[in-house]
Amino acid sequence: MRKASGMKLTNRLVAFVTLIVICAMFVIFIGGAISFRQLGQDYLHHYLGGVVEVIDQEMAEPQGSQSLARWLPKLLKASNVVSLDVSNDAGSVYQFQGLQKIDDPNILYQTEYPLTLNPGYSVSIQSVPPYTELTYSLGAMSSISLAIMIIIAGLVWGVNWLKRQLQGSELLEERGRMLLAGKLDDFAKGTELEWPDTASLALDKLISELKDARQERSRFDTFIRTHTFLDQLTGSANRVLFDSRLQSVVQDQDNHGAVILIRIADWEELLLAKGKIVADELIQDVGMVLSNMVQRYPDSVLSRYFDAEFAIMLLQQPSKEVNQFVNQLLKGLERLTPSAPLQRENWCHIGMTYFASGERRGRIMDEADMALRSAQLQGTNSWYAFQKDVLGEDTRGSVRWRTLLDAVFSQGGPALYQQPAYLSGEQVPLHRELLARINDENGVMLKASRFLPAVEQVGFNVRLDKQVISQALDLLKNGPTLDNFAINVSIESLLDKGFIRWFRDELLQTPRPVLKRLSIEVPERNLSRHIDAVRTFLKMVTGLGCRLGVDQAGRTIVSTHYIKDVNVQYIKLHRSLIREIDQRQENQLFVRSMLGACANSGVEVIAVGVENDREWQVLQQLGINGGQGRFFAQEMNVSQMSTKKRR
C-alpha cells in the first residue's frame, strides 16, 4: 500500500531551493579560489621571469656578474624572494638567502629558469606566493561580501515568497493527511486558501458524494435488516427473527423461559367490515400495549407472528413471575376498545407454555398454540397455560437472589472464565473475553445468562462491573500471560456517575501499555439508546488507549450510526445470528448487511457462538473478520489459560 510522505511539500521545495543556492555558492567559491590562486601563480611566474631576464642581461656584460651583489639583493627583497642561486656546471656563481622567517617551507613557490644569453647558466628561485600573508578584510573583499549578502537576502526573500505561494498547497496536503487519519467529518470542507483550487473543489465534491453514499448505504443496510427481521406496521420482530432467537435459546445450555401467543379473534372480519386502516390501528394499539409491558424484561422478544397474532418470549423468569406478567398483559389489552364486529368481552386470547434447553422449537410453538386454542374455547377474554412440568426453573425470588449475590460479592466477586476470539487467518487471539460465573448455595456454577437478570432486578450492576474490572486489571498487570482481555460493561453502570468516576480513576492509575491490552464491550441495543449519555466517557476510554467493542449486535434491529460516534474498533454479532447460519439465508443476509455497514470504516466484525466447521466456512465466505465460540476453544477458568493455538 502506498504511504503518504512524512515531509510537507513546502519544506521539500524550500529545502531543494536552499540546497541548490548553497551548492551554487559553494561551486562559485571553490572555482573563484582556484582561479585566484592560479592567477597569483601566473603573476609571480611572469614577475620572476622579468627578474631573471634582468640578471641574464646583466651577466652578459663583462663586469655584470660583479655588480649583482650591489643591486640584486634589494630587488629580491622587494620581490619576496627567499633564496636565489645562479649556477653553472662548475658551481654557484651567485647565491642569495633572505632573512625572513618562513613557518611552513611547503608554501614556497620554487622554480628554475635557464639564462638564454648565458648558455649553461640557470637561476633557481624560491619565493613567497602572493597573497599568502594577507587576511580577509571587509574592505578588501567588499565586492565579494556584498555579493554573498545579496545572495543570502535573495534566498531568504525567495523562501518566504515560496512559502506564501505554497501555503494553499500545504493546507490541501494537511487536509489529505487528516482524511487519511479517518477525520472525514472534521475536514470534509476545505478553506478558500487551499490551492490548487480545482483539486480542493474536487476533493470537497468527492467527500460530499462519499458521505451521501455512506448515508445511503447505511439507510439501505438498515432497510434490509428491518425488512428481513422486523414487522413494518408495529416495529416489533417478525416471525423469522422470533423463530431464530427461540432456536438459539433452546440450543444453549441452562436456558429456560416461556413462550406466549396473543391472538386477536375475528380480525379478518374486522378487516372486511371496516377496512385496512381500522384493522391496522387495532394491530398498532395491541403492539403498543405489548411493547410497553415487555420493557422491564431486557431479554424478552416481542414479535408479530402472524397478521393478527403476537408472540412473546421471556427468558430466565420463574413461573410465578410469568403468570403475573400474563395477567397484567390481559388486563392491559382489555383496556382497549375494539371496533365492531369484534366483541369487547371476547376478542383477545392468550396461550402460554414453558420451555427449557434441549426442547424442539416446533414442539414449543405447538404447545403454545394448543394453549391458545384452549383459551379461545372459554368464550371470553382469557389466557391458558399448557400443562407440563417446568424444567430448569429457578425458584429463587428477589430476596434469595440478593442474599446470594451479596455473599458472592462480599467474598471476592465472581469467578472469571475466558474464551478467545480470533481474527481470520491469525493464530494468536485478538483477545480473550472474560466471562463472569458464580456458585449458588449448593456449589453449582451459574452462567451469566442465569444470574444477570437477577443482578439487574436487585440493582447490583455497578457492584458486579466493579469487581470484574478490578480482577481484569489485576490480571493484566500480574497475570501469567501478555494476552489482551475484553470485559463486558453494562449500560446501567455507564449511566452511574459514581461508577464513571471510579472507573476513570482506575484507568488513570494504570500504565498505558496495560490499557492497550484492555477492551471494553457494551451491548448494542443499550448503546444505541443511550449514545448521547455515554459518548463522552467512551471517547475518554478510547483516548486512554483501551479498545471499544460492541457486543450482541443484531439482537435487536438498530441503526449502526454509533460506529462513528464513539470510535468502535470491533463488533460482535449475537449468537442467534450465527447458530445454523449455513441453513438460514435470512441470517446470511443480515450478516452481509452488517459487513456492508462496517466496510471502509476499519471496524472488525466478529461472529460469536461459532459451533462447527459448517458455520465457520459460511461466515468466511460472507467475509467475516473473526470468530469466537466452542469451535475454536472451550470456555476455561483464567487459571487454566494456555497458549494453545486455534484450529
Automatic annotation (TrEMBL):
SUPFAM superfamilies tied to this protein: EAL domain-like, Nucleotide cyclase
Keyword Zinc annotated: no
Positions of the GGDEF domain: 255-388
Transmembrane region(s): 12-36, 136-159
Source organism per UniProt: Photobacterium halotolerans
Protein name, as recorded: Diguanylate phosphodiesterase
InterPro entries, A to Z: Cyclic-di-GMP_PDE-like, EAL_dom, EAL_sf, GAPES4, GGDEF_dom, Nucleotide_cyclase, Rev_trsase/Diguanyl_cyclase
Assigned keywords, A-Z: Membrane, Transmembrane, Transmembrane helix
Pfam families: EAL, GAPES4, GGDEF
GO molecular function, one term: cyclic-guanylate-specific phosphodiesterase activity
Domain EAL: 398-647
Domain of life assignment: Bacteria
PROSITE patterns xrefs: EAL, GGDEF
